Amino acid sequence: MTIWQTFLSRRNTLDSPVLPFVTVLLSLTILASIGNLWIPADSALHVSTYTITLLGKYLSFAMLALAVDIVWGYCGILSLGHGAFFALGGYAMGMYLMRQIGTRGVYGDPILPDFMVFLDWDVLPWYWLGMDQFWFAMLMVLLVPGLLAFVFGWLAFHSRVTGVYLSIITQALTYALMLAFFRNEMGFGGNNGLTDFKDLLGFNLQADTTRVSLLLCSAALLAGIFVLSQWVLKSRFGKVIEAIRDGEPRVRFLGYRTDRYKVAIFVYSAMIAGIAGALYVPQVGIINPGEFAPLNSIEIVVWVAVGGRGTLYGAVIGALLVNYAKTRFTALMPDGWLFALGALFVLVTVFLPNGLAGVYGQVKASVKRNASDEQSPHQKSEAS
Amino acid sequence: MTMNNTPRLMRRDQVWPFLQPARAGINVDKDIILYIEDLSVSFDGFKALNNLNLYINDGELRCLIGANGAGKTTLMDVITGKTECDSGSVYFGQTLNLLNYKEAEIAELGIGRKFQKPTVFEAQTVFDNLELAMKSNKRLLPTLLARLSPSEVDRIDEVLVTIGLIENRAQLAGALSHGQKQWLEIGMLLVSKPRLLLIDEPVAGMTAEETERTAELLTSLAGKHTVVVVEHDMEFVRSIARTVTVLHQGSVLAEGSMDEIQNNPDVIQVYLGEEP
What's the complex ipTM? Predict the structure, then answer.
């Protein structure tokens, strides 16, 4: 039996959230694209290129939130270091974009990026080789975060590190990478990172059409990954993953090697984070070690908590809303954002333990409770 | 004692490991499924198990009783690979040395365990719980591509009937009553088609009616499976047990039928004697 056949046969289990999610996501991005490209700038319906880029950025964050939700919401692994995988994917894309600059850099060197000329390097470091090929760079977008997650996950899950200890070492991981990438000798541009990109696959990154294409790409990839993840998590594999969250020792006694399952889901999630990073970099035009900052990784967790864990679409909604709020808030009151974020996290944890995605369930449950309270005691005892 | 001091390869009672087939099936030619010999476990100097010897016959229903701290749960932990022992041996059939296997492998060999506290996966349906527990290839990729065959669905439904939860098939396991969760957990053991079932306090917290049904369920399992039950409830033990083993301070104090046990002077002194 091929994978495709099982995929099709499981279509009926891909029920409720998939179709509405994909439809809404794709139609909104297509509408925004039309609004940018074909509606004249003086019309009220015109969508500015700034907004398009902003939307593209939000969608890559949404994908990152999806990745965190897969490990946290479904498998109970609270990773506070997913920003590292995101940044590594971003750096892989950034290296490709750097090589695309060619002689248009400030120093006009056909091979070396500007910062290497500035550091008086004569040859390209070995790990930059091949990065001028798009396919190779895209492979690295998946492989580098995947490999790191594999090694890290293998060590951590094999020695049964769980809970808060795991969260702390994921923080340490991203912090260590941040310090490493800040160093000029690493060959990734030091604290300036990689920037001043010109084009992607020959298309000018500043052009409206490229921006719109990037947005559409982000939306399509997000939709694809959403469907794939939904399929993975609805399979028996997904049931095992959820069972690990609720009682890992029990799953082990059922005969599943839980450490391998955790490594697998962690690697899968890290690869999604890598793709998100690769989509983020061409849209914002820069990648620097700041992306590794532990604070960023914690913010992702807040997005997921706000949207609701363990639903996938909740994580996407959370990422979009919180980032929109962030854009608005930092424009009005730049210093207040972190306080607002903290307050949001506390409020959500106290009042909406299941996040925004859980509001419907919470309301339904309270209505049901009220209804059963109105029954006479006699009926109630019968019902129970 | 001299035997245990002999190097492993020189021991005449054992086949050299490299002569054994890699995945030998369980060998119960002597009608004994579990050999536990000279088993000792200590935690920070406290001897939880002290030179314990125990043999379980194939297909029997055995009850283990003993006061708190007698080592019942530790014994189960060692058999299922959760706790490492200091010395001694645990053989599953004549050839499989359980001390060389990890938890998941021991489960695969055919030893199922039910914990004291019911641990079902509450966020998943009763049916899904059984699907997860089913005997199947539990490696990553087969699990990802797994589909239930009609015969597997029938098998699950059969178990659902046995444990009396067929009407709760699509319900979330978290919504079951305490007794139902215990049965579901026994059902999870059954779908995995184990040779040996280790059941820890199955009737704790159950109503009289539920206890009675559990007793019926367990006696119906003996014969097809070997069942080892750890229990405090003496009435319950009396209703199901053919052979009872009494543990005391980490070793076997007495073994025999319930009547023999209750008339055994040692047992009366250390265990039953404690009760007013």
Answer: 0.76
Tell me the chain B residues in contact with residue A252 when contact means C-beta distances shorter than 8 Å: 103-104, 107
**A304-338 as b/e, with b when 16 or more CB fall inside 10 Å?**
bbbbbbbbbbbbbbbbbbbbeebeebeeeeeeebe
Find the CB nearest B140 among A242, A253, A264: A264
pLDDT category, A218, cuts 50, 70, 90?
very high
- List the single residue in A9, A232, A254 with the smallest CB-CB distance to B107: A254
- Whether residue A383 is contained in a domain is answered as no
- Determine the structural domain holding residue A148 and report its residue range: 3-295
Among candidates B80, B124, B145 on the partner chain, residue whose Cβ is nearest the Cβ of A239: B124
Is a pLDDT exceeding 50 seen at residue B219? yes
Contacts of A237 in chain B (CB under 8 A): 140, 143-144, 146
> Which pair of structure tokens corresponds to residue B119?
């641990």
- Which residue in this structure is represented by tokens 């919504």? B175
Q: Is residue A239 assigned to a domain?
A: yes
Query: What is the β-pairing status of strands B61-65 and B46-57?
Result: unpaired
Domain contains A259: yes
Among chain B residues, CA nearest to A5: B145
Position A186 in a domain: yes
Using CA coordinates, name the residue in chain B closest to A232: B144
- Tell me how close the Cα of A364 comes to any Cα of chain B, in angstroms: 17
Place of tokens 């020695």: A159
Distance, CA of B42 to CA of B228 (rounded, Å): 23
Which residue of chain A comes nearest to B80, CA vs CA? A253
Domains of chain B from N-terminus onward: 2-274 (3.40.50.300)
**Which residue in chain A is spatially nearest to B105 when comparing CA positions?**
A255
DSSP state of B163: T
* Residue-level pLDDT at A217: 92
Q: Which of A235, A242, A251 sits opposite B144 (nearest CB)?
A: A235
Chain B environment of A240 (Cβ under 8 Å): 132, 143
First to last CA, chain B: 40
Nearest-angstrom CA–CA distance, B25 and B65: 30
Tens of pLDDT, residue by residue over B36-72, are 888 888 888 888 888 888 898 888 888 888 877 788 8
Q: How many domains does chain A have?
A: 1
pTM of the model as a whole: 0.81
